[in-house]
UniProtKB/TrEMBL annotation:
Annotated segments matching region Disordered: 1-46
Stored InterPro entries: AA/rel_permease1
Organism: Exidia glandulosa HHB12029
Iron as UniProt keyword: no
Chain segments annotated as transmembrane: 136-163, 191-218, 230-248, 255-279, 299-318, 339-362, 382-410, 431-451, 457-482, 494-514, 520-541
Protein's name in the database: AAAP amino acid permease
Pfam family, one: AA_permease_2
Recorded topology in the membrane: Multi-pass membrane protein
GO cellular component, one term: plasma membrane
Main location per the UniProt record: membrane
GO molecular-function terms, A-Z: amino acid transmembrane transporter activity
C-alpha cells in the first residue's frame, strides 16, 4: 500500500497541516538549552510551556517509529526476557481509495447480497423442524400432561407469541444472521457472545440427535431391527454427515417440497381422525378423561404446567428463524414468524386432541410413535405407512438441518477469529467443510452415547437448549436497549415485555429441571466443556502466557531457551492479527474506550484507528493525531496506528479499505449510529462496540 506518512506533530497544534510522503524529523533540543521565562517577566507562550513535554515525548518515542515500547514497570517474568507482549510504536498514515477500488468493492458486495427468501419459502426452511417436531414431542408430552396434553401444547404455542415482537426488534436492530451470538457480540462483551454460541451449538447437536433417534423409533415400529436401535441412530448421523461431506447443502426449494408433503400428511391424518371421531362418537374420549384426569384442580394445574414446560419440545425450530435473516427479503422476517406460529397453534393441539379421541390412553402413553399408530387405527395400514415415511423424511431433514446450521455457526466463529481457519478447510471437489462436519458428528455421538441412548433425556436437553435460546432472545433485547439504545429499529417494544419474557423462560426452565434433575446436570456438563473449548480457541494467548510464566518459575527449564522462544513466537503470531476502530471525533475518552474494548475482547496487539474524510483535511479533528500518540503511549502492549482515508464513509469504502489493509469488515469496530445514518448494520458489515 502506497501510504503517506504524516510529519511529526508541530509544537503548537499537535497535528500536521499537510499529508507528506516522508517523515519530517524535528530537531531535539537538550534540556539545558531550552529557553525559559525570566522571573518577573511576561508569562511564557503556549509553545514555550509545552516545549519540555514535546521534547520528552520525542526522546521516549524513536523518530523513525522503530523499537519496542518496553515499559519500566516490573515484569512478572523475572528470569526470562521482558520483551514478551510489548508492541512497537504506532504511526500515522494517509491513503486514498481509487474509483476502481470502490467499484470492485461495490461489485463484490452486490454479488454477496443474496436476499432470496420470501415469507413462504423462508417459513418452509424453518418450518420443517417446527412442524416436524410433533413426531418426537407428542410421546414426551403425553406421558407428563396426560389428558391435558392438548391444553399444554396450546398454551406453549401461545407463549411464543410473546417472543415474536422481541425477535422482530432484535432483527431490525441487528439484521445479520447469527442469532443471539451476533446480538450479544454487538451489545456486550465477547465472553457473553461465546456463551450464546455454545448454547446454539448444543441446540444444533440436540436437533440432529433427537431427529435421528425419533426416526429410529418410527423405523423400529415397522421393521424388526437385527441390532440395537442405538446403532441405527449412530448410523443415521454418520450417513447424513457423509451426505453433507458430499456437498449437499440446504435447499429452499427442497425444504418447501418436504414441508408441503408433511402438511399434506398431517391434513390427511387429521381428516381421517375427525371422520373416525364422528363415526365412533365420544366414547374413547370419555374413557380417557375418566381414567387419566387429575383428582383435583391442583393436580390438573400441575399436569398442565409440566406439560407446558415440556411442550416447547414441539416448538423447536422456531428458534432457528434468526439464522436465515441475511437471506430473507427486507420486511419478510415478521411475516415468516407469523407463518410459523399460526400453523403450530392449529396443528399441535388439534392433532393431540384427535389422538385422545381415537386412541386409548394406554396406547398414547406407551407408544413412542403415536401418529403412525393413530393413522393405523383411523384409516388402516396405508396411512400408517404414509405417516412413517413422512416422519422419516422430516426427521432426516432435521438431521441435515442440524449439520448445516452448525457449519454456518462454525463459519461465523471462524470469521470472528474464535475458531482457527482450518476448521472451515473445504474438500477439493465438493467444497464441504469436512473438519466442522466431523467435529459435529463426534460431539453428537458423544452426547447420545453418554446419555445411554435414551431419547427422553436427550429430548429434555433439547427443550432446555430451546428455552435457553429464547431466554437469550429476551436477554439480548434488554442488552441492546441498555447498551445500544441509539441503534435504529422498527417497531419498538416495551422493555417490560423483555423482563416478563425472561422471567417466563426461567420458570419454564425450572419446570423442566423439576421434571428430571438429570437434565440440567447433562446440559451444564456439556455446556461447560464446549464453552471452555470455545474460550480457549478464542483467546489462546492467555494459556500461552501462563505456560510462559510456569516456565519462568522452574529454574531447571531456564536453559531450554528454545521452548521459551517457541511460546513467544506463538503468542506473537496470535497477537499480530490486526483489528480496526472506525472513529469520527478526537475525544480521548472515546478513543480510550475503544482500545479498552479491544484489550478486553480481542487477543491482538495491533489496532488501527481509521478516520474517513472526503475532500479537505481541514475537516479532520484537530487533536486526533495528538490524542492517538497519547493512547499509543498509554498501552505498551498494543501498537496503535492512525490511518486517514480520503473516501466517503460508505459500505463500498469499508469493503475497499478492508481489501487494502487486510482487515475483514467484521473485525472493524464502530460506535452506534442513529436514524439519520443512511446505512444499516447488515450493509456496513462492522461490529458495534459503543453507545
Amino acid at each position: 500500500m502506497d501510504d503517506k506518512i504524516s510529519p511529526e506533530s508541530s509544537m503548537v497544534a499537535g497535528v500536521s497541516s499537510q499529508p507528506a510522503h516522508e517523515t519530517v524529523e524535528t530537531t531535539t533540543t537538550s534540556k539545558e538549552h531550552v529557553p525559559g521565562p525570566d522571573v518577573g517577566n511576561e508569562p511564557p507562550s503556549f509553545a514555550q510551556s509545552q516545549l519540555h513535554t514535546i521534547i520528552r515525548r520525542q526522546i521516549a518515542r524513536p523518530r523513525d517509529g522503530s523499537g519496542v515500547k518496553v515499559s519500566k514497570r516490573p515484569s512478572r517474568f523475572a528470569n526470562l526476557p521482558i520483551e514478551l507482549g510489548f508492541a512497537g510504536w504506532g504511526k500515522v498514515q494517509w491513503t486514498a481509495l481509487s474509483h476502481d477500488e470502490l467499484a470492485a468493492a461495490e461489485a463484490k458486495l452486490r454479488d454477496a447480497d443474496e436476499k432470496v427468501l420470501g415469507q413462504w419459502v423462508g417459513a418452509a426452511v424453518v418450518g420443517n423442524d417446527l412442524l416436524g417436531s410433533v413426531f418426537y414431542a407428542f410421546p414426551a408430552v403425553a406421558v407428563v400432561a396426560g389428558i391435558y396434553s392438548p391444553i399444554s401444547l396450546f398454551v406453549a404455542t401461545c407463549i411464543l407469541f410473546i417472543f415474536r415482537p422481541i425477535m422482530v426488534e432484535l432483527a431490525s436492530a441487528i439484521p445479520v444472521s447469527g442469532s443471539n451470538y451476533m446480538y450479544l457480540l454487538n451489545s456486550t462483551k465477547r465472553f457473553a457472545a461465546l456463551a450464546a454460541a455454545t448454547v446454539k451449538l448444543l441446540d444444533n447437536v440436540a436437533t440432529a440427535v433427537v431427529s435421528a433417534a425419533a426416526s429410529t423409533v418410527y423405523i423400529e415400529g415397522e421393521v424388526d431391527l437385527p441390532f440395537s436401535p442405538i446403532w441405527l441412530t449412530i448410523l443415521l448421523l454418520i450417513l447424513f454427515s457423509i451426505v453433507a461431506v458430499a456437498g449437499l447443502k440446504e435447499s429452499a426449494s427442497l425444504a418447501f417440497v418436504i414441508l408441503a408433503l408433511h402438511i399434506a400428511t398431517m391434513l390427511a391424518l387429521m381428516i381421517s381422525s375427525a371422520v373416525s371421531w364422528g363415526v365412533h362418537g365420544n366414547a374413547i374420549l370419555r374413557h380417557n378423561w375418566a381414567i387419566a384426569r387429575a383428582p383435583d384442580t391442583a393436580g390438573a394445574l400441575k399436569s398442565i404446567f409440566y406439560g407446558v414446560c415440556l411442550s416447547f419440545l414441539g416448538m423447536t425450530g422456531f428458534e432457528c428463524a434468526p439464522d436465515y435473516i441475511s437471506s430473507m427479503k427486507r420486511g419478510r422476517y415478521p411475516l415468516v414468524l407469523r407463518n410459523l406460529l399460526w400453523p403450530a397453534v392449529f396443528l399441535n393441539s388439534t392433532l393431540m386432541l384427535l389422538a385422545f379421541a381415537s386412541l386409548p390412553f394406554s396406547e398414547i402413553a406407551g407408544s413412542p410413535n403415536i401418529l403412525s399408530q393413530l393413522g393405523y387405527v383411523v384409516a388402516g395400514r396405508w396411512l400408517r405407512i404414509w405417516v412413517t415415511v413422512d416422519a422419516c423424511v422430516c426427521l432426516c431433514a432435521g438431521i441435515l438441518t442440524g449439520i448445516i446450521s452448525n457449519i454456518a455457526l462454525f463459519e461465523r466463529l471462524t470469521k470472528d477469529r474464535v475458531l482457527p481457519k482450518f476448521v472451515m478447510h473445504p474438500l477439493p471437489r465438493s467444497g464441504a467443510q469436512w473438519v466442522s462436519i466431523l467435529a459435529f458428528l463426534i460431539i453428537c455421538c458423544i452426547l447420545y452415547l453418554t446419555t445411554g441412548g435414551k431419547l427422553q433425556i436427550v429430548s429434555l436437553m433439547f427443550t432446555t437448549a430451546f428455552l435457553a435460546i429464547v431466554g437469550l432472545f429476551a436477554l439480548s433485547f434488554l442488552m441492546i436497549n441498555f447498551h445500544r439504545s441509539r441503534l435504529p429499529r422498527t417497531p419498538r417494544t416495551s422493555v417490560w415485555l423483555g423482563f416478563f419474557a425472561l422471567l417466563l423462560t426461567l420458570v419454564m426452565l425450572g419446570g423442566n429441571v423439576a421434571l428430571d434433575p438429570r437434565t440440567i446436570a447433562y446440559f451444564a456438563a456439556y455446556f461447560a466443556v464446549l464453552f471452555a473449548i470455545l474460550c480457549l480457541f478464542a483467546n489462546p494467548v492467555t494459556p500461552l502466557q501462563w505456560a510462559y510464566w510456569m516456565l519462568d518459575q522452574v529454574s531447571v527449564l531456564h536453559r531450554r531457551t528454545g521452548l521459551a522462544q517457541r511460546i513467544v513466537l506463538a503468542i506473537t503470531r496470535f497477537r499480530r492479527k490486526p483489528v480496526a476502530c472506525l472513529i469520527k471525533t478526537d475525544q480521548v475518552d472515546e478513543l480510550l474506550e475503544m482500545i479498552l474494548y479491544v484489550q478486553d475482547n480481542e487477543p491482538t496487539s495491533c489496532v488501527k484507528l481509521i478516520h474517513f474524510y472526503e475532500s479537505s483535511i481541514d475537516a479532520i479533528p484537530s487533536e486526533l493525531e495528538a490524542n492517538m500518540h497519547i493512547i499509543d503511549e498509554a498501552f505498551p502492549h498494543i501498537t496503535v496506528d492512525l490511518l486517514f482515508v480520503q473516501a466517503p464513509f460508505t459500505p463500498n469504502a469499508i469493503e475497499a479499505l478492508s481489501e487494502k489493509i487486510h482487515v475483514p469488515r467484521n473485525m472493524m469496530f464502530m460506535n452506534s449510529f442513529s436514524d439519520s445514518f443512511p446505512y444499516g448494520l447488515d450493509e456496513m458489515g462492522t461490529r458495534i462496540i459503543g453507545l
